[in-house]
Design goal:
heterodimer, A: 328 residues, alpha+beta, Immunoglobulin-like, 2 domains, five-stranded antiparallel sheet, B: 199 residues, 72% helix, 0% strand
Chain lengths: 328, 199
């Protein structure tokens, strides 16, 4: 790495300004102090540059503590000369040293000089205004960044071999870039597997196939059977079967046979179904009338078939909420 | 901390209760929707690649301005190779809005190559006057390509070729190309009593 370092003489151009009370402006010639110290231009590679190449430069400006470069005075990215563009500018404070602070300007240039031979070119000089902000006063000093040289190189020989068609001088165009569907495909697979996993979780939660025989979902199975019976034509027999299905659900949930008089105990053991005490009570009444009563048609008045289906559905929902994840 | 922690857990568990039934239904649906969207993207990429292959093989395919950037570039190159640059202009504008710098640089290189081929044709016919602005346009295109992507070596090479063409014209040296710097003295020649110093 080669480093170019240019040390100009101390800059003695200061523009001190004192603004008093916002009404009176007085310019006082302050003694030419040492607000700006050395200015150094460093470039990691100022040579071997082809047309279109970018090259970096770091300008180190030593300024008195309290002085900061004015953003508006920094060079603006854009064309500088017909062959040179400035593409990026940034400024950062560096370390402090004996009352001075080192400011680093990072500049990126791009050369468009189509060289025929190796030659040196001047990168234009510029100035940066530093200002010190103290209450009621602004003192500014100008740092002059000197011009420095780069060396550009030709890409081709001066006299290329003659060709039949001058178009052959041009580089052939590269193949057209294609879309890469790999990422979208991978994400699609990820979403699909996520969806399948979610579907399995849903099926397990609702005791759908292949989790139909799940022990923790007794009421889900009962609701499924009740629904199936509700669609049958022979209402009388279907109602009996539906009642039996719900009985089996209750028995499997409790792990023992639950009769009408055990309802209070059942609800105490399974508080998740407490909200369903009334529908369950009506269900047991209807069951008693169907299986032990004289008039089975009374049962459908106590607990009509749609109510039975709704009770089964609410029981299944309460079961899902109570045994989320199948812990019990 | 010890007192808030169990209550926080209880709050979370209580909040999870009503959320869970919604989540367990919504997650597979969201997954399926995402998978469908990505499948649509994959299909779009595949059809774009087929259209690019057709354009490269010389079969014209209509391309709208909202197509994917790679397809826009393929169509721009197709039109530039056939000197239908007027049709390519809206597509270049669309690519400038949607494409990556590398693709935009390739489009500018295609544009520059087309201009330079036109200039070569004029030069072969001995029409130096009309070849010069074409070379200038080509150099502008290569320069834009290099601004977009400084490591575009084809643009560097072709810009070098174009630069030497213009330098060959004695009346317009490369030093006074399209970015001819204004001579401050000449600005005021038409004004009587020219002012001294800066305006």
């Amino acid at each position: 790495m080669r480093t170019r370092a240019i040390k100009p003489p101390r800059v003695a151009r200061e523009i001190p300004t004192v603004v008093m009370a916002g009404v009176l402006s007085v310019c006082l010639p302050l003694p030419a102090g040492a607000q700006i110290g050395s200015v150094m231009v460093r470039s990691p590679r100022p040579f071997g540059l082809f047309v279109g190449d970018c090259f970096d430069a770091t300008v180190e400006i030593e300024a008195a503590d309290g002085f900061a470069p004015q953003p508006a005075s920094l060079p603006k990215p854009g064309p500088l000369t017909y062959w040179l563009d400035l593409t990026a500018v940034s400024v950062a404070p560096g370390p402090a040293r004996a009352g001075n602070r080192l400011w680093r300007l990072s500049l990126t240039y791009q050369t468009f000089y189509a060289a025929l031979d190796v030659r040196r070119l001047d990168v234009p000089a510029f100035t940066v205004t530093f200002a010190s902000e103290v209450p009621r006063a602004t003192t500014s000093a100008v740092a002059e960044v000197p011009s420095w040289q780069i060396s550009v190189s030709p890409l081709r020989e001066i006299q290329p071999p003659p060709v039949a068609d001058p178009v052959e001088y041009l580089r052939p165009e590269s193949p057209n870039p294609r879309r890469d569907p790999a990422l979208a495909r991978a994400v699609a697979w990820a979403f699909a597997s996520f969806s399948v996993a979610g579907l399995f979780a849903l099926a397990r939660d609702r005791a759908w196939w292949p989790f139909r025989r799940r022990a923790a979902r007794a009421f889900a199975a009962a609701w499924r059977q009740v629904r199936r019976h509700a669609a049958r034509r022979d209402a009388e027999a279907a109602y009996r079967e539906a009642l039996l299905a719900l009985h089996r659900g209750l028995d499997r949930t409790d792990g023992r046979r639950v009769m009408g008089e055990d309802l209070a105990g059942f609800l105490a053991r399974h508080p998740a179904y407490a909200a369903l005490a009334q529908p369950l009570d009506r269900f047991f009444q209807a069951s008693r009338e169907v299986f032990f009563g004289r008039d089975p048609s009374l049962a459908q008045r106590t607990c009509p078939f749609p109510d039975l289906v709704a009770t089964a559905r609410r029981l299944a929902a309460a079961e899902r909420t109570a045994k989320a994840g199948g812990r019990s | 901390m010890t007192t808030t922690r169990p209550s926080l857990a209880r709050v979370l568990r209580r909040a999870w209760g009503p959320v869970r039934p919604v989540m367990i239904v919504a997650l597979p649906i969201a997954g399926a929707a995402g998978a469908l969207a990505c499948v649509a993207l994959t299909w779009r990429d595949g059809s774009a690649n087929r259209a690019i292959a057709a354009l490269e093989a010389g079969h014209d395919r209509p391309v709208t301005a909202d197509a994917v950037p790679e397809l826009l570039l393929a169509r721009i190159r197709f039109l530039a190779a056939r000197e239908r640059l007027d049709e390519a202009e809206p597509l270049i504008a669309a690519l400038d809005g949607s494409g990556s710098p590398a693709l935009r640089a390739l489009a500018q290189i295609a544009l520059g190559n087309a201009r330079l081929r036109q200039a070569f044709a004029k030069l072969e016919a001995g029409d130096l006057e009309s070849a010069t602005p074409l070379v200038g346009l080509a150099r502008q295109a290569y320069r834009r390509a290099l601004t977009l992507r400084p490591e575009a070596w084809n643009a560097k090479f072709n810009l070098d070729v174009a630069s030497r063409l213009v330098r060959d014209f004695p009346e317009r040296g490369r030093e006074q190309g399209e970015e001819m710097p204004a001579d401050p003295k000449k600005i005021w020649t038409d004004i009587p009593g020219q002012p001294r110093g800066l305006p």
